[in-house]
Write a structure and sequence with these properties.
Blueprint (H helix, E strand, L loop, with lengths): L7 H9 L6 H13 L4 H17 L5 H16 L13 E6 L6 H13 L5 E5 L5 H14 L2 E3 L8 H14 L4 E5 L7 H16 L6 E7 L3 H14 L4 E5 L8 H10 L3 E5 L7 E3 L2 H8 L2
Parallel strand pairs: 1-4, 1-5, 2-3, 2-4, 5-6, 6-7
Antiparallel strand pairs: 7-8
Helix pairs in contact: 1-2, 2-3, 3-4, 4-11, 5-6, 7-8, 9-10
């Protein structure tokens, strides 16, 4: 079977239609979880927990194992609160992440998500090092019904664009200000210094409500390794997982939350502007283990 057509749900359907739980069940389940990017440590922990429960309840019914697996995933996902903290006015959200993860399009989708709930939104194009990013962000903001603050000249100090964005939100009583930030500079230290400067300047006007890190679900554990500098230095308060098309890499959602201790707050499961949703552990666990 081609890798692109494989998904966890399909693999599990075959596994749980067997007449009984046997050693091949455990081998197949381990393989399915590894392929779905749960990672070896988390896979081992889940299997140990399930083996203990199966023994405790003396069951040989694969339907029981399926229910236990879904419950285990949901309980682990629910250990962190996925609620977005956006009660301040304006609520200022910094969006960070390496270039290529879909950060700019995610901001557009997030703006649409918020305007859909009746919130007014201004988006700040503070990734001033990439002219294409500014134009792309402006296009998405327009589609989302949000206003946009652009750099007044190419290469303008990102912190000044961020400041102008929050100032406009204050002046025009806009509910939420979302600020795009650079994903790449010449050095990692330079990038983190730039982010720190953006934070300091914005915080002169008021507190930052959320710092959301965008991760590409298709790159899985490798993508997380690339983003760890943001987790270490940027004060990340929530994760946004993009490109979760199907459940082939769905285990990454649980693995990244367990590894970082940071809650997942939004997930993107398609290319459309309406394809970003709030994260609900129960719904996501049910989609992984249908």
């Amino acid at each position: 079977m081609a890798e692109r057509s494989w998904n966890l749900g399909g693999a599990l359907r075959g596994l749980f239609t067997k007449p009984t739980i046997d050693e091949s069940t455990w081998d197949d389940l381990e393989t399915a979880l590894i392929r779905a990017d749960f990672g070896p440590d988390l896979t081992e922990a889940i299997l140990d927990e399930l083996r203990e429960k199966v023994a405790r309840y003396s069951t040989t019914d694969p339907a029981d194992l399926k229910r236990m697996l879904r419950e285990s995933i949901e309980e682990r996902l629910a250990q962190h609160d996925p609620t977005l903290t956006l009660s301040a006015r304006p609520a200022v959200v910094l969006v960070v992440g390496v270039n290529g993860v879909g950060k700019t399009t995610t901001i557009g989708k997030f703006a649409k998500f918020l305007t859909g709930y009746g919130r007014s939104v201004v988006v700040g194009a503070a990734d001033t090092f990439r002219a294409a990013a500014v134009e792309q962000l402006a296009t998405w903001a327009d589609r989302a019904g949000a206003s946009v603050v652009r750099p007044q000249q190419q290469g303008q100090d990102p912190a000044s664009v961020a400041f102008q964005t929050v100032q406009r939100a204050i002046d025009e009583s806009i509910d939420i200000a979302i600020i795009d930030t650079a994903g790449r500079l010449q050095t990692k230290a330079g990038l983190m210094d730039e982010l720190s400067k953006v934070r300091r300047v914005v915080e002169k006007l008021g507190p930052i409500a959320e710092v959301l890190l965008v991760l590409d679900g298709t790159t899985g554990q490798n993508g997380l390794a690339q983003a760890e500098a943001f987790i270490e230095h940027a004060g990340v308060t929530g994760l946004v997982i993009t490109k979760l098309d199907g459940s082939a890499k769905g285990g990454f959602v649980l693995a990244v939350q367990e590894r970082t201790g940071i809650p997942i707050k939004l997930i993107g499961q398609g290319e459309g502007i309406g394809d970003l949703t709030g994260f609900t552990p129960h719904v996501f666990a049910a989609s992984l283990v249908p």
